[in-house]
């Protein structure tokens, strides 16, 4: 039996923590030494029986295990490891590279496998992708804990982010959701206004009743009136039967009126009456109905300007604006972009399992100004998953508009400037140079920010002929 003690670089934060398990002692020790040189914190074991205690004693990101060992195998070790740490990511080393071996390892929860003998350069890309998967798993749990006081109908419709703006929104939802107060949700298109309506409904006493949505911009005025309030048979040409409106359908629940600024003056008056006393009439009817419905309205227009221009009723504006939640543009909450990436890759997979994003592509996503906001980010990630060759999204999979870059904000990766998806050397050079500049030439801090070892950073500095001042 032999063990390689925990080793690491002198960086404050290692690239990742790896537990290496292989009964071939010399191979195990050599691999531990090589991974340490690459910036990992590593512990090596040649006795697989010691693995469970090692996992309980220290938090490891990755389990890099041989497949065939005396008395057990890497698949059994990984299954046991996942019982101890559900976020553990396993990579299997094997000299028996058959399809059956790969299938068994994947079924057991392995991220990937590598064939012996191998060179370190062949293993590093696999470990980097595995670390990204680990980060995504932990990040998704952290996001759930942040908003655990709120109830969401599914992971897909969860509010994501840690920025001050998002925290303020979550706190407002906590206060307002249990009441019957109407809410006006404001913000640019694509910022998630319907998501807020769902959160308000899902955390109210009305959660067991319907949540009904109507978009005022998609219907003509006459059709919108019928859609909202219903109509009687014969009320207009083609009305061959009576039809309940959305206020009736949403009885006891919540009605989300999107793009409320597109509503005409006459319909605004009818909406105001419902908000004031709950009364309305179907089109073509003289009979009064009463609605027990909470109204959440949304707009991407400045209602103050619309009201001043005479396009929106002043009394309706004040009635809607009692409780207002304003959503920022995505470029104003850039620090949330990495978490949003993790969220969309987890909840909107295209069929090949959880995918990851390499550092240059992540930097481009963080730097883009996102004129289409969160909706645009979700669509870009869906497109990238479809175009990606493997399980990692690279700059080649992103639109040129995203690679063009934007102004970076605090706490996110710097902007990328590239003329085409093929300009990867230029992207890498700019990224490394900018990180070095932001850290005053301190290569320890820069390497940590880049997620590489100092030795790798020196190679990048030499490759791109960058200034090498600083420790």
Automatic annotation (TrEMBL):
Q: Which Pfam families match?
A: AAA_lid_14, HTH_8, Response_reg, Sigma54_activat
Listed A to Z, the keywords are:
ATP-binding, DNA-binding, Nucleotide-binding, Phosphoprotein, Transcription, Transcription regulation
Where's the Sigma-54 factor interaction domain? Answer: 159-386
UniProt modified residues of type 4-aspartylphosphate: 66
Q: Where is the Response regulatory domain?
A: 17-131
The record's section on Gene3D superfamilies has:
1.10.8.60, 3.40.50.2300, Homeodomain-like (1.10.10.60), P-loop containing nucleotide triphosphate hydrolases (3.40.50.300)
Alphabetical list of InterPro entries matching this protein: AAA+_ATPase, AAA_lid_NorR, CheY-like_superfamily, Homeodomain-like_sf, HTH_Fis, P-loop_NTPase, Sig_transdc_resp-reg_receiver, Sigma_54_int
Which superkingdom heads the taxonomic lineage of this protein's source?
Bacteria
Question: Can the keyword Ion transport be found in this entry's annotation?
Answer: no
UniProt KW ATP-binding keyword: yes
- Its protein name is Sigma-54-dependent Fis family transcriptional regulator
Organism this protein belongs to: Gemmata palustris
Name the lineage: Bacteria, Pseudomonadati, Planctomycetota, Planctomycetia, Gemmatales
